[in-house]
Design goal:
Layout: E1 5-9, H1 15-24, E2 28-32, H2 35-38, E3 43-46, H3 51-60, H4 64-72, E4 77-80, H5 82-87, E5 88-91, E6 104-109, E7 120-124, E8 134-138, E9 143-147, E10 152-157, E11 160-166, E12 169-172, H6 183-195
Parallel strand pairs: 1-2, 1-3, 3-4, 4-12, 5-6
Antiparallel strand pairs: 6-9, 7-8, 10-11, 11-12
Length: 196
Amino acid sequence: MSNPVIGVLALQGDVREHLAALAGAGADARAVRRPEELAEVDGLVIPGGESTTISKLASAFGLLEPLRARVGEGMPAYGSCAGMIMLADKILDPRSGQETIGGIDMIVRRNAFGRQNESFEAAVEVTGVDGGPVEGVFIRAPWVESTGAGADVIAVHDGHPVAVRQGRLLATAFHPELTGDHRVHEMFAQMVRAAA
């Protein structure tokens, strides 16, 4: 599979930036808002935004259970920032009624690096990404409190895990789609090709 079809969950967040980064990584990128669109993709990106809002909208659009089913069946998925929270099996401090898709054996802490005005950029070494550090944009970012045996921490910042991979699932606390550096998206596109 040369050009995998990769969807971006287009309910809220930086959808356009992920679509551009995926196209730059050689994928056929498409917005996904409905279950029938989800059924047509080989992999899915869950963008940053507000995890509680994404959870509620996914439920309202009838996507939460189809997302859980596809991830459970082995569809590759990549979540950035709020997407990391959505792929976590557990949230340390969930908002009332907040649900996740799950799939990665990790516990995450929402807004762990601080509020919006404490956002920052940092160079992050990511295992599996060649060519030096990735510039990570951290906006009200989570961090990983703990991981289970199946999850591999592939990047750390300031002593906290900020990127995790478990099988066909990938999650980063930061936003690589905002930097013009497509290497994380290239790594995910390769994961999708390998799964096909």
